[in-house]
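re: ur question from earlier - yeah i can do the single chain one, its not a big deal. heres the input i used so u can compare w yours
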Amino acid sequence: MKHALTGLLLAGSILAQPALAADKLLLKVPVAFSTELPSLGTPIPRVAEEVELMSGGNIKMKVYEPGKLVPPFEILDAVSAGKINAGYTTAGYWAGKIPAAPLFSAVPFGPEAGEFMAWMYYGNGLDLYQRMYDEAGYNVKVLPCAIIAPETSGWFSKEINSPEDLKGLKMRFFGLGGKVMEKLGVATSLLPGGEIFPALEKGAIDATEFSMPAIDQRLGFYKVAKYNYFPGWHQQATVFELLINKDAWNEASEQHQAILSEACKASMADSFAEGEALQAGALKKNVEENGVELRKWNPEMLDLFRTTWDEVAAEESANDPFFAEVYKDLTAFREEYNLWEENAFLPRL
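and the output i got, formated as tokens:
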């Protein structure tokens, strides 16, 4: 599949091919998300096609579906230890190992995709992202390699109109938003995508969030939970990462490193565009064919989520100096960005 952005990269790489190192690079890449899931799992097979084309066949990526080579939640450790030389996942899965990791994945009431990428590439985000893994002792090179826009806020089997309606719920929830829900009386668990529907169907959980409507639709949540809530306050944008073993990265030629870096950067734009193109149709199908009722959080609930997030952010910052450093940097970037956002964009009606 050819894309406009990678077309430019391809033209440059063809000119540079005589200088490419003769060494071959094979990356075995287990993924945390099924490659059948649009804009969540689909980016990495496209990246694999593109890097092979741009390198003249010198770089190959063999993609393994979730659990086929390494379980999703073990990818970071396996890449760092050299058991595999690469993996595709999201930093939010490492919250139990590195408290600051979710800040490089999704931030409650945080930046939308454009602002998130601006901080990553032209603020301090990418440097802090790599530093996080280095200082935590992980032998990995990190490349942001996909991003999606807002997710749904959750699938529920009953309406949620007040804080009392949340208390006692068992819910699959991701990242820092999960800490917010726990403060509100929800028992949260973090399940890989393929395990969520069976847990809903069997009653092991009462509700779930996972991703965007077109992705959630593929997983069949609408069959069990008919109330789909918006906006996704917990994940206004979510970044996904290609992790490469640091030794393998350092041994690669500069050309190979550049091809991988630029292919992932192009994938950020492509995955964002793909996700945005699919959601309206998915919402329409959910309502008209699947019996889903779309709900918007009332102002009371959104205010509650926001104030609770402020408490969580303060607690996480107090408990972990690196979390505090990253969150302070992101907040400072956003405060400056607000001047642009408030003046440049049309007001939302």
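The first helix runs from residue 4 to 16. not sure if urs matches, ping me
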